[in-house]
């Protein structure tokens, strides 16, 4: 069986950290990217220089045609896809009274419909089994921090879909799990964690009193993709420093 993992949002953040780790484990990595060809190409070159196999694959997960194309590009460059990490995601921060329909539609298109269609594509193509990890969020079980209720709702959809999808494809030896990161240092959170005062306030709301690093989330993803997790499916793994100290707000 080939050992090829497609990672959406693979050029940056949690996706890129995962690509580096699983490449070391011997997986060939298809690095999904939407715009940042430079970052995807640089990461592929880094993995190849270290003796691994990698290829950038371009596509917007809000486009069904692009999703199909990303799988085709991955298969052509590396072979049949046996692993999928859905890390592509966006967030919006807004009070509900200020929501705009177009922004909500984009949020759902990327975080929910795109992720589900990537899983559909994997389900069609993983004819000899496989492993899928959906990047959810600790926002899901708590409804998000202030202003993140819509984002949290998309991640709750990811959790529920993961549970149902895992039941559907279990007998085909396809394992499906979710990882729920807490606040993690990536481009997505740079606007908050770029300010040490805000970071300190956020850290107070996390039982371990610090935010996470992308590699700490990637380690959980790596385990779920690996044969070491061969009987783990339908799980939601929290990688969150203990969750949230409910009641504290940072704004
Ligand atoms: P990030 O911004 O570094 O990475 C997100 C990636 O998704 C980027 O590479 C971006 O280009 C890609 N992307 C966005 N829209 C896309 C689209 N339409 N098509 C293809 N790619 C697209 O942020 P990150 O923190 O690494 O986020 C990875 C995942 O982790 C996301 O699903 C996010 O919701 C989730 N998450 C992050 C945190 C955190 O604190 N950083 C916490 C919980 C969950």
Distance between the termini: 50 Å
At the fourth CATH level, what is the homologous superfamily?
A: NAD(P)-binding Rossmann-like Domain
Radius of gyration: 17 Å
Mean pLDDT comes to 96
CATH topology tier name? Rossmann fold
Instruction: Characterize the biggest β-sheet.
Output: 7 strands, parallel
Structure summary, number of beta strands:
9
Strand order of the largest sheet: 3-2-1-4-5-6-9
- Quote the beta fraction: 15-25%
Tally of helical segments: 9
**What's the CATH architecture name?**
3-Layer(aba) Sandwich
Shape label: globular
Question: Which key phrases capture this entry?
Answer:
251 residues; alpha/beta; Rossmann fold; 7-stranded parallel beta sheet; two-stranded parallel ribbon; 9 helices; 17% strand; binds nicotinamide-adenine-dinucleotide
Any overview of this molecule?
This protein has 251 residues and is an alpha/beta fold. The chain has a single domain (4-239), classed as Rossmann fold (3-Layer(aba) Sandwich), CATH 3.40.50. Helix content is 46%, strand content 17%. It has nine helices and nine strands. The chain has helices spanning 13-24, 37-49, 64-78, 101-125, 139-142, 149-169, 190-193, 196-204, 214-225, and strands at 4-8, 28-33, 54-58, 83-86, 130-135, 174-181, 184-185, 212-213, 236-239. α1 (13-24) links the parallel β1 and β2 (28-33). α4 (101-125) packs parallel to α6 (149-169). It is globular and about 45 Å long.
């Amino acid at each position: 069986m080939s050992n090829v993992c497609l990672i959406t949002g693979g050029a940056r953040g949690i996706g890129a950290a995962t690509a580096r780790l699983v490449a070391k484990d011997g997986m060939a990595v298809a690095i999904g990217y939407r715009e940042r060809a430079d970052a995807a190409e640089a990461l592929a070159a880094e993995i190849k220089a270290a003796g691994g196999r990698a290829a950038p694959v371009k596509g917007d997960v809000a486009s069904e045609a692009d999703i199909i194309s990303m799988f085709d590009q991955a298969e052509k460059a590396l072979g049949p896809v046996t692993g999928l990490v859905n890390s592509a995601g966006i967030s919006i921060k807004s009070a509900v009274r200020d929501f705009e329909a177009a922004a909500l539609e984009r949020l759902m298109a990327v975080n929910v419909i795109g992720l589900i269609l990537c899983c559909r594509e994997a389900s069609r193509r993983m004819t000899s089994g496989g492993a899928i990890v959906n990047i959810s969020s600790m926002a899901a079980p708590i409804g998000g921090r202030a202003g993140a209720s819509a984002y949290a709702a998309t991640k709750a959809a990811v959790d529920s879909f993961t549970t149902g999808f895992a039941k559907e494809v279990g007998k085909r030896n396809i394992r499906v799990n979710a990882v729920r990161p807490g606040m993690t240092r990536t481009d997505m959170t740079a606007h908050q964690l770029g300010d040490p005062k805000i970071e300190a306030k956020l850290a107070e709301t996390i039982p371990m009193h610090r935010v996470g690093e992308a590699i700490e989330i990637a380690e959980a993803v790596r385990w779920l993709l690996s044969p070491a997790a061969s009987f783990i499916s339908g799980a939601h793994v929290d990688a969150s420093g203990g969750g949230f100290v409910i009641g504290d707000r940072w704004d």
